[in-house]
């Protein structure tokens, strides 16, 4: 697969780290970024909207899309299926915007194989206690689900060295600033700089 001009930025974080808040903040500051919308079999949480937060689809629809090869990657996370639709990524690649994919670690690995120049960022909580507090504050999950999410979070954090960058989310504005810095630095790589002149000896 040829590498696109748009940056592809995979952002992963265990539940309760505050990834979505950081991304929403950055998006509000930067017009050249767009977040890809994944499909999922998970039920919408309070306030989540179909076609905005996710494409909420049934297990049957998801399976049928797998069979029709409509996903560029998909993974099972916390008993639900999540996947990036080929059509969604193709649509975003045609825009001149840099694309943010919010994926789990499995998704990051798949995207790195398909797009080796993609950038991967893993966000961590200031502490596991703080992460658990945020998960409970969200109050959208029953107690046993919180326990499962905490265990999975620890497993995911063990993979942090596989990522190009790590951000510890002490504070939303600072984390958004850090992500902004990463994006700006990546845009200054020699391969991305088009010169208006030729270098001849
Ligand atoms: P949540 O249910 O909290 O919205 O998401 C649970 C996990 O699924 C998060 O780690 C999120 O990044 C991941 N996820 C969301 N969409 C996708 C996707 O399209 N593919 C993969 N591999 N993971 C996803």
Which descriptors apply to this entry?
201 residues; alpha/beta; Rossmann fold; five-stranded parallel sheet; four-stranded mixed sheet; 40% helix; binds guanosine-5'-monophosphate
Protein model, in words:
With 201 residues, the chain is of the alpha/beta class. It has a single domain (8-187), classed as P-loop containing nucleotide triphosphate hydrolases (Rossmann fold, 3-Layer(aba) Sandwich). The chain is 40% helix and 20% strand. The chain contains seven helices and nine strands. The protein has helices at 19-29, 59-67, 86-94, 105-114, 128-138, 143-157, 172-187, and strands at 8-12, 33-35, 39-40, 55-56, 71-77, 80-85, 98-102, 119-124, 165-168. It has a five-stranded parallel β-sheet with strand order 2-7-1-8-9, with helices on both faces. It starts with 7 loop residues before the first strand and ends in a 14-residue tail after the last helix. The model has no long low-confidence stretch (mean pLDDT 93). Bound molecules: guanosine-5'-monophosphate (5GP). Guanosine-5'-monophosphate is lined by residues 12, 15, 38, 42, 73, 75, 77, 82-84, 102-104, 106-107. Guanosine-5'-monophosphate binds next to β5, β6 and α4.
Q: Briefly, what is this?
A:
The chain is of the alpha/beta class. It is 40% helix and 20% strand.
């Amino acid at each position: 697969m040829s590498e696109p001009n748009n940056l592809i930025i995979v952002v992963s974080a265990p539940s309760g780290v505050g990834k979505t808040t950081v991304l929403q903040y950055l998006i509000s500051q930067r017009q050249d970024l767009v977040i890809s919308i994944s499909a999922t079999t998970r039920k919408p949480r309070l306030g989540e909207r179909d076609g905005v937060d996710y494409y909420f689809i049934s297990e049957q629809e998801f399976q049928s899309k797998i069979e029709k090869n409509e996903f560029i990657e998909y993974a099972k996370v916390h008993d639900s299926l999540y996947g990036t639709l080929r059509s969604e990524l193709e649509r975003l690649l045609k825009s001149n915007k840099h694309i943010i994919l919010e994926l789990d670690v499995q998704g990051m690995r798949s995207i790195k194989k398909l797009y080796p120049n993609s950038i991967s960022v893993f966000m961590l909580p200031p502490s596991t206690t703080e992460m658990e507090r945020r998960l409970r504050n969200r109050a959208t999950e029953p107690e046993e689900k919180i326990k499962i999410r905490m265990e999975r979070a620890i497993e995911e954090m063990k993979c942090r060295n596989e990522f190009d960058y790590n951000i510890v989310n002490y504070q939303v504005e600072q984390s958004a600033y850090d992500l902004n810095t990463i994006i700006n630095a990546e845009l200054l790589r020699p391969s991305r700089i088009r010169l208006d002149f030729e270098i001849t000896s």
